[in-house]
């Protein structure tokens, strides 16, 4: 997946004239809103203009608008294109602390949606890195708190616990020690060498490799540079400079990129990078981030994700490629959240018919809806605790009440544990209460 080298840029008199022509300004803006690299831009056709000349014109327009960020001895640039400014405003209105965001997630269902979103993110972030299991099986494992049996399952549990830790400690500053703690949570019992969990790499024999052909696509900075780079990253995370304003969402994206670029760990860098992205946005008040599964979209566009890294490095560390890709991912994730909520609200209408049954509360109605749709479902007290974020006593009471009402049957697993399954009377009770 090596990226084609771009031609050398020539800022000639012809290019200067082109960049200042009104029609060319508009065309360059269109190209920069997509933020095309040479491998795509070279197919754009312009009268009396060679692709190499167009590339030089585009690069000139970018160069005059570059903003700079430094980490250690490494220099990075980015451009706030019209697309970036527009989408950031949209996110400020809908994902940040404004009233518009308050209307996206219904108050009554916040807990349910949040639990589902955190599970979704934990599963997808792990699957990007190779975890091999179905979403249904993974969610069941998390809800029932079943001990993971494979490395894939352990990765998912680790991600889930990490995200929960971040949401509970969102206002903390980032320090090297806290970064190591996050990595320790994420990598627990998943690395070949236990000593590498929650530890910065001590070797330079670490490369980012294309798993298809084994090609080295990125060689990170040496391990002797890690202390300076990590300290700079923590400063970037914790402070806002007076001289330069960087939008919080763009800062979160840069933090995500830099963990991948620095590669401070032998493994688990991608999962750590995405965790820090969430942490920073939650710290900055973008509370709806908790409900977005960014990794689900990245998983579906993994090739573009990898290319966004490579384009940045191939084109003089221009972060705009990665920013543009990441903002599109956030947009898709937000749209997916809205669709998910609309679907769940339709389900709520079906749940309402179960709530009309005397002495059935909303949680019990949801359990009845689940077992109506999936007759083979098995509930446990622990699963109900996690699903609804209620106490063990409340979860047990909900299930035992449904047993007393003969909707469920309790099966003794051992001296302590019980499973709860659909009873033989379930269909007859639906007829009795006129539920279809």
UniProtKB/TrEMBL annotation:
ATP binds at residues 208-211, 267-274. The keyword Transcription regulation applies. Keywords: ATP-binding, Nucleotide-binding, Transcription, Transcription regulation. This is Fido domain-containing protein. It comes from Flavobacterium chungangense. It comes from the Bacteria. The active site is at 263. Residues 174-328 form the Fido domain. Pfam families: Fic, HTH_DeoR. GO terms for molecular function: ATP binding; DNA-binding transcription factor activity. InterPro entries: DeoR_HTH (IPR001034), Fido (IPR003812), Fido-like_dom_sf (IPR036597), Fido_containing (IPR040198), WH_DNA-bd_sf (IPR036390). The keyword ATP-binding applies. The lineage of its organism: Bacteria, Pseudomonadati, Bacteroidota, Flavobacteriia, Flavobacteriales.
